[in-house]
Amino acid sequence: MKVFLLDTKIHNRNNFSCEEDSLTEYLRRQASQDIKKSLAACFVVVDETNNVIGYYTLSNDSLEREEIPAEHQKKVPQNYRVPVTLLGRLARDISARRTGIGEHLLLDALHRCYRISISGIGSMAVIVDPINDKAAKFYSKYGFTLLPDSGKMFLPMKVIADLFK
User: Fold this and answer.
1) How much of the chain, in percent, has pLDDT values that exceed 90?
2) b (16+ CB within 10 A) / e for 95-105
3) Domains located in the chain, CATH noted
4) Longest dimension (CA), the chain
5) For 6-18, how does the pLDDT look when each residue is reduced to its tens digit (9 = 90+)?
6) Could you give the percent of the chain with pLDDT greater than 70?
7) What torsion do the CA atoms of 128, 132, 135, 140 make, to the nearest 10 degrees?
8) Is there a contact between 18 and 92 (Cβ–Cβ < 8 Å)?
9) pTM
10) Angle 133-140/101-118 helices, nearest 10 degrees?
11) H-helix or E-strand containing 107?
12) Averaged over 19-36, what is the pLDDT?
């Protein structure tokens, strides 16, 4: 499955539907605006007729030093914000259930984040903010750990690097 940067002139978002209405509506109504405003990049997998069957978004973010796991805090100077990459949304169409597309999208996102981090843009980790418990369980299977007090989950770039070396 090839992953593309969303092109609204080619990729049809209108038929996309997933279990979470907010993720369906984001792709249909908001993703193109976020792209135009450089708020997020949206990557998609499409079927043979260019209907989107899965997507994820990436953007830059930062966390307070105190928000990251203690074992990583010692690597960050006091009063620094920690640069991270936010995997803001990840969803697959209901028609693609149990096809492995969710895992494919996640691994593509992590690989993309890793490549960006070694090309000169600092990012200590990838973070996600799971929409529900099912999503949290999905991310935890891939090594994401819960950050205290925020509900966000954290995967160090070093762990991601080890996946792709």
Assistant:
1) 84
2) ebeeeebbebb
3) 4-164 (3.40.630.30)
4) 52
5) 999 999 999 999 9
6) 100
7) 70
8) yes
9) 0.94
10) 60
11) helix 101-118
12) 97
Is residue 36 helix, strand or coil?
helix
Phi-psi region of 130 (alpha: psi -120 to 50; beta: other; left: phi over 0): beta
Contacts of residue 34, defined as CB under 8 A and 6 or more positions apart, other chains included, come to 40, 42, 57
Residue whose C-alpha is closest to residue 161's, from 127, 116, 121, 104: 116
Tell me the residue ranges of DSSP E strands in the chain: 4-5, 41-46, 52-64, 81-92, 125-128, 145-146, 153-156
Provide the token pair at 47.
């079927």
> Over 90: is that where the pLDDT of 157 sits?
yes
- Amino acid present at 32: S
- List 56, 80, 139, 142, catalytic entry: 139
The 10 Å Cβ neighbour count of residue 23 is 19
Token output for 92: 């697959």
The pair of three-digit structure tokens given for residue 78, joined into one six-digit string: 């006091």
Which residue do the tokens 């492995």 mark? 100
* 114 catalytic per annotation: no
Tokens of 63: 């966390």
Structure tokens at 46: 């499409």
As given in the structure block, the two tokens for residue 43 are 């990557």
